[in-house]
Specification:
The chain is mostly helical. The chain folds into 2 domains: 2-126, no CATH class; 127-160, no CATH class. The protein is built from 7 helices and 2 strands. The chain has helices at residues 2-10, 18-27, 42-63, 68-71, 75-88, 93-106, 154-159, and strands at residues 143-146, 149-152. A two-stranded antiparallel sheet has the order 1-2. Strand 1 and strand 2 form a beta hairpin. The relative contact order is 0.10.
């Protein structure tokens, strides 16, 4: 796990302009969709680390891969297998895309798992915050969800 954390740490670029890095790459004639292979946000790092550690644990338990040096040459094969399992388990398209992005960053391979067709996101299937649900209460404490719009409780309007 430490190797995974160290690798992601080496990609941190806090305080460096993501926009400037992408502009410099584009000026070299690279494609419009570019990455400087750096992480510019602590939240992104946290998310990528969570997904990466979960994957590395799975690879260790399933394929007995104990070091990143063993995992690197098999990354394409194992990431594709892992994502297919996640699809079969019904993970949401957003989750799957975030995981693939994390793995692409971890292994510095923008085409990793291109052979896996991820489900398409559709507005109708997004359920988070579409109605009052227990796992969303932390998002808007003191407010209730009505007709897909958040409205403050009447007491907060009166007493402010």
């Amino acid at each position: 796990m430490k190797e995974t954390i160290d690798r992601l740490e080496s990609k941190m670029a806090i305080g460096q302009s993501r926009y400037a890095a992408k502009q410099a790459i584009r000026e070299q004639g690279k494609a419009w969709s570019v990455s400087d292979e750096k992480i510019h946000s602590f939240k992104t790092r946290s998310t990528y680390q969570e997904h990466s550690i979960r994957f590395v644990k799975w690879a260790r338990e399933t394929h007995h891969v104990t070091q990143l040096a063993q995992l690197d040459p098999r990354a394409g094969e194992l990431v594709s297998e892992y994502l297919r399992i996640q699809i079969a388990e019904g993970k949401s398209p957003s989750t799957l895309m975030a995981r693939r992005s994390a793995f692409r960053m971890l292994f510095s391979d923008r085409t990793l798992a291109d052979d896996v067709k991820l489900p398409v996101r559709s507005r109708e299937k997004i359920t988070r915050s579409r109605g009052p649900v227990a796992h969303d209460k932390h998002l808007h404490p003191g407010e209730q969800l009505t007709s897909n719009f958040l409205i403050p409780h009447a007491s907060s309007l009166l007493f402010g």
